[in-house]
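Re: beginner question about structure tokens

> Can someone show what the tokenized structure looks like for a real chain? I only ever see the sequence side.

Sure, here's an example I had lying around. Input first:
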Amino acid sequence: MKFGIIGAGMIANFHAKAILAMEGGELHSFYGRRQDAVDELVAENGGIGYTDLDAFLSDPELDIVTIATPSGAHLEPALAAAKAGKHIVCEKPLEITPERIDMMINACDAAGVTLSGIFNRRFHPAMDVFKKAADEGRFGRLTMCDAYVKWYRDQAYYDSGAWRGTWALDGGGALMNQSIHLIDQLIYLAGDVASVSASTACLAHEGIEVEDTAVAILEFKNGARGVIQGSTACWSSTGHPAEVHLCGDQGSAFLADEKFRVWDFAEPSPDDDLVKAELMQGSVGKGLGANDPKAINFEGHKRNFEDVVAAIAEGRTPRVDGVEARRAVALICAIYESARNDGAKVHL
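And the corresponding structure tokens:
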């Protein structure tokens, strides 16, 4: 299937690299507002360049559109793409509020096209075995379920684009932009959250409207408790790995990026041999994207795109459809609501 990319920045180039490497997809075109930026992408990756959105979307060869614009500017191109009958894969967050995401979902349903979000950290072997253990009940009664993202972004990162660090286009800070991947993993594994109490602050950056540090206390619908810590103000020479922890009365597992730091269960399983042989953290390494977003590899994006192509071909829902991609945004918005109200408990 042929892909076109809406957006002309770093993320658009990242999408292009993943599409060029994937099975079942072909990079076809780019759309951006600035001719020079579009020309640069085409020169590096191939394809056709457009600065007219209608012309881009009316191309009959175009099957799937990926959206790589700033977070709060996903809705409008998604609505246009759905109206044009194109399938859509949208960078995280799908949009910056649940209400805007609902508009995207409804438009795609009405048009009969597929909508998928990008949560590339779901698509690696350690997450597959982690999800399998959770679904099989190997943890017993879940008790503590946590996510920790202690990353660093320098001031130049926020100064690099006028949209960065704004509520209107970034939708939030360390939670909505960086920690959303781990928040998605957490609720994918542990289930939905019933209520949250939170505190946020901007402690180490200037000229931004949003948080660079956040803490939330969670009560899950299954009764477990948990914590989310998200920050872009935690300096490290190598970057701290982002971690998701699940603990229950029959097992514990701590995932650090794409390797386990802890994998320990009361009852053994054949999967344990695979984890111990291939998926355990040998030593504390560099956090993936912890200090530099350009250091993230595109393997997860590639698998995310491949799943969408397979879902369309098979007539099934992709693994990260609009409803799935909405869950993390709804939780983050509830955290922000609690923080605005001095940590008052917010029910989801």
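Each token stands for a local structural state, so reading them left to right follows the chain. The chain has a mean pLDDT of 96.
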